[in-house]
Fold:
Amino acid sequence: MNDMTPTREQREAALEGMGCKRKRVEDIRFTQGKGQYVDDLKLPGMVFGDFVRSPYAHAKITKIDATEALKIPGVIAVLTAEDLKGVNLAWMPTLAGDVQMVLADGKVLYQNQEVAFVVAENRYIADDAIQVVEVEYEELPVLTDPFKSMDPDAPVLRPDLEGKTEGAHGPRKHHNHIFTWEVGDKDETAKAFSEADVTIKELISYHRTHPSPLETCQCVASMDKVTGELSVWGTFQAPHVIRTVASLLSTIPEHKIHVIAPDIGGGFGNKVGAYPGYICAIVATIVTGVPVKWVEDRMENLSTTSFARDYHMTAEIAAKNDGTVTGLKVHVLADHGGFDACADPSKWPAGFFNIVTGSYDFPAAHLAVDGVYTNKAPGGVAYRCSFRVTEAAYCIERAMDILAQKLGMDPADLRMKNFVKPEQFPYQSALGWEYDSGDYHTAMQKAMDTLGYRELRAEQKAKQEAFQRGETREIMGIGISFFTEIVGAGPSKNCDILGVAMFDSAEIRVHPTGSVISRMGTKSQGQGHETTWAQIIATEIGIPAADIMVEEGNTDTAPYGLGTYGSRSTPVAGAAIALAARKIRNKAQMIAAHMLEVSEYDLEWDIDGFQVKGNPQARKSMKEIAWAAYHAPPPGMEPGLEAVSYYDPPNMTYPFGAYFCVMDIDVDTGVAKTRRFYALDDCGTRINPMIIEGQVHGGLTEAFAIAMGQEIRYDEMGNVLGASFMDFFLPTAVETPHWETDYTVTPSPHHPIGAKGVGESPNVGGVPAFSNAVNDAFQFLGSTHIQMPHDAWRIWQAAKDLGAHG
Amino acid sequence: MEGFERDETFLHRAFGPEIFRAEGGRSKDVIPGEFTYHRPASVAEAVAILASHGDEARPLSGGHSLIPMMKLRMAAPEHLVDLGGIADLKGIDEDGGTITIRAMTTQHELIASDLLAGKLPIIRETSLLIADPQIRYVGTLGGNVANGDPGNDMPALMQCLNATYVLTGPDGERDVAARDFYEAAYFTALAPEEILTAVKIPVPPAGHGFAYEKLKRKVGDYATAAAAVVLTKSGGTVATCSIALTNVADTPLFAADASDIVAGSTLDDDTIKLAVAAAEAITEPASDGRGPAEYRTKMAGIMVRRALARASERANG
Ligand SMILES: Cc1cc2nc3c(=O)[nH]c(=O)nc-3n(C[C@H](O)[C@H](O)[C@H](O)COP(=O)(O)OP(=O)(O)OC[C@H]3O[C@@H](n4cnc5c(N)ncnc54)[C@H](O)[C@@H]3O)c2cc1C
Structure:
C-alpha cells in the first residue's frame, strides 16, 4: 500500500465528527473581542430609546406630562400608552395566553414597569429627558405575597380581567387567579395515601431568581419607509417566532420583516419572549423613520424582563415501611407577577412540571398548579431548564430526602429502591409522560463507587459526633440528586407556540468543491452550535467539520425554526440536521453508483465516501461526488447537492444524571464550602465531549449560584431588592467549586443519532444537590427542611433556630 | 417626583444608605448627568477650583466609588476635579516612626510596597481583601478613606492604626485623627473645599501581631462584617491592643472598650468573650442582602474573635 494513503483512523480523525473534542470554532472571534453583538450595530442616523419606569409597585397613573422632556434639544419623541393605542399596541399577547401592557395603561403593576418611551439622539439626552417626564401616581395597596393573592380582600391587580371567569387555561376562581392545572389520578392517589405505612408532607419553595445573561436584552429596529420593510436586529433566542409575532402585531407582511439575531451573549431563557422594549423600538422606528436602538441596563434586566421560578410546592409522598413509594401528591402555588408572561409551549401553563415523579416508579400521582398574580415583575421563564423541569426536579429530590429521613433510610438506598428499572423503558409515568430510555441503577452505582459514598457517610457520622462533643464547629453534608429531565419540545401533537408547532429545521448545501454551508432554525447563545452542528454533518456526510459553515439567526436565510431553549436544539434541530444530511448522502450514493458504474445497492458507506462492497479500492469520496453533482450528474437526476429537513419529534428525550455534593459548613458564620461536586450525566449519544463538559460546568455554576444565594427579593412595598450584581449573586471563579464530571451513555431510541440534549441538566440537577447537601448537614440536629437560597446568613439562621449556637 | 423621595427615605431607614450602592431597585440609570472636567497640576490649584464651586464640585481620585454613584445619579457633581495630574499626591515614605502615604497611592501600590510589607503588613493584608485586582489598580487610599462609605475597608483599619488624615484647604493644612473623622454615612470632617492629601500612620513596634478578618459573600463584595486587630505582647500577656470594625454601623467603629478589655490580658476565654461582647455592643448594622442586623452584629463578634486569635499567634513576646 502507498504510505501516503490515509488509514481509516486518519480519515475518521480528519472529519472531526461526532464524539470528537473539537475546539469551539466561534471562540476564535469571541476570544479576540470580534463577536458582533446587537450593541455593536451602528446604523446611520440611529437614535436611542429608553424607558421612564414606575417607582411604585402598584399605582394608578393620573397624569403623564412630557412637556419639559420634549423641550430638551435632541429629544425626538416620548411615547405613552395613549400613543400606542393608535396602532393597537398598548397591550401585547404573552406566550402564556395572557395579555401584557407594553406601556402602562392607566396603572402600574410592578416597580420599574415601563411607563413611557423616550426617543432621543443619544443615550445621555434620553436619560436627561427621563428625569423630567412628569408622572403622577396614586398609590394602591401592594400585594407581593402569592399566598395572599387569593385572600377575599386582596387588591384587584388586573381590572382589565374583571368579570372574566374563564382564562386561557380554564376557570378562574378569584380576581387574582390565573389558572388551575391538574394532572393525574386524584382518587387513585388518595387511595395510595389512605393505605400508606408512611407519609411525608412539606412546603418546598423555589425562590424568585433571574437568568441574568451577561448581555442584557436589546434590539435595533429600522423601518424603510420607501420599501415598507422592517428590519429588527435583536437578542432573540427564537428569531422566527419574533418575526411571526411582529407581523401579527404590526400587520406588516411577514416577508417584509427581517429579523436577525447576531451573536448573543447568553440567554438562559431571558431572551425567548417579546418585551415592551422591542415593541416600542419598532413603533418608534415606524413613527420616526430612523433606526432606533434599545439596550436594557443591568437593573432593568434583573428587575423587569423575565424572572424565573417563584414556585411554592407542597409535596406529599406515600410509602411502605420498606421504602417503596406508592403515591405522590403535589400542589404548586405559582407566582407569575403582574402578567402571566411564562415562556412555555402554549398548552402548558405550568410547563412540563408533571415530570415531578422524577426518576421513581410512582404507581399513582396527582398534581395541581394554581397560578396567581402579584405586584412583581412578570414571568416566569425557564432559566436554563425545560419549562419548570428544574422546579419539578428540586421538588421531588428534596421530598425523597425527607422521606428517607422519616424512614431512617439512606437517601441513596431509597432512590435505588424506587428507580424506574431498565426493563420498564419506554416507561409510562403516572403523570402522563413516556420516558424514552434510561439506566438509572448503573449511573447511581457508578457515582457512589467513584465518590466513595459509604466512606463519606462514615466520615460525616464521625464529624457529627465530634460536633456534639464540642470539638469542632464544622458540620458536613452530602447532597444527592438523581434527576430525570424532559427536553426537546416538542412533538406537534402537544407542543406549539402561539399555534406554530414546535418542530425544527436544517438546510444543508454542499458546494461543488465539497465544502458546505448549513443553516438551522435554532440560535446559539453560547451553546457552540457552529461547532457541534458541523460535527453531526461531518459524520453523516463525510466532509470535514472544518469545511462546514454553520449559520443561524437570520430569518431571511435560515429555514423556519422555533429557536434555542429548553435543551431542544439537539433533540429537535439535531435530528433535522442528521436527516437533511442523510438525504444528501442518499443522493450522493446514487451519484457514486453512476460514477463507479455499479448499482447503488452494491455500495457501502465508509467514513467519507462510498466504496464497492468487497472492493474498497473502488471508491468515491464525498468531495468527488460533490463535484460530479454539479459537473455531470447522472442522466435524469437534478443537479446540485442540497437538502432541507423539518423534524417533528415523535417524543421528548429524557436525559438523566446522578449528582453528588459534599459540603462543609461553618456553623458560626453560616459559610458553606463545597468540598467535592461530582456530576454524572447521561445525555445519550455525545456529540462533543468537551462542549458537554463546558455546558455542565456552566450549568453547575448557575445551580451553585441559585441554591446558595442568587435571588430577586421584594420588600412588602414591592420595592425590588438586589437588582444589581453587587447583590445578585453571580459567582466568580474564586467562589465556584471545582467540578468533577462523568458520564454513562444510554442513547435515545427515537432520535436519529440517539442524542438527548445536555445544556440544562446541570442547572436542573445541580440545585437539588446543593440544597440537599445543606439540608443533609443539619438533619442530625433535628431539621427536616431549610428553604433556599442557602446564603450564609440563612444557614446561620437555620443553625441558630436549631440551637447550634449554644 | 414626589414618590421618589418618599421611597428613598424608606429604603434608607430599612436598609441603610448603602442601599443606594447595592440595591438599586429604585434608581435605574446607568448614565451620568452632565459635568465639567478639571485636571489641575497642583494641590493649590485643585483647592482653588473646589473653593470656587463649593458643593457643586467633587474631587475625583480612582473614581471607583464616585463614578458608580454618578451613573446611578445618586451623586451629580457639576464639576469633577481629577487629582490624577498632581505629582505631590503620590508616594509612600517613612520619617521617624511615622509612615506617610499620600492620597493618590493606589490600593495596588499599597500591596506592592516593601516598606509597608515590612513595617505595616496589615495594610497589605487588608488591601488584598478589597474588591478585585482591576479595581485595586485604580482605587486609591485617599478616595477610600475620604469617601465616608461604611463599607470601605481602609477607614476602620486607619482607626485601628490610629492614623491621622492631612486635609488641605484654602487656609492651609490641618490634621484630623481617623478616629474623629467619620460622622455618618458619607458625612465626614472634610469640608467641600478641602482635599485629603495624605495619611500619617505611627509605625507599630516590630513583632506586633495583626489581622484583618473580613466576611464577604464573594470577591468584590463589601464586608458583611470585618475586624482589624493590632496588638503587642510582652511576657505572654497582651501589652497593647487596638480593634476596629468595618461595615457594621453607618461609620467605621473604633472598638475602644473591647481594645481595653484585651490589653493586659492573656487572651483567655473569658477575656475574649468579654471583648467580643463589647465589640458587638457598639455595632448598629443595617439589614440588607448580606443579612439581618442581628447576623451582622454576631459576625462582627466572630471576626473580632478570629482576628484576635490570628494576631496573637503572629505576635512576638
Ligand atoms: C465592584 C467594587 C467593589 C469594591 N469593593 C470594595 C471593598 O471590598 N472594600 C473597599 O474598601 N472598597 C471597595 N470598593 C471601592 C474602591 O476601593 C474605591 O476605589 C474606593 O472606595 C474609592 O477610591 P477612589 O480612589 O476610587 O475614589 P473616588 O471614587 O474617586 O472618590 C470617592 C469619594 O471620595 C472623594 N475623594 C476622593 N479622593 C479624595 C481626596 N483626596 N480628598 C478628598 N476627597 C476625595 C470623592 O470626591 C468621592 O466622593 C469597591 C468598588 C467597586 C467598584
User: Anything to note?
Assistant: The pocket of flavin-adenine dinucleotide is lined by residues B 58-66, 68, 83, 103, 130-131, 135, 139-140, 142-144, 146-147, 152-154, 190, 195-196, 220, 222 (CB under 6 Å). The mean pLDDT of chain A is 96.
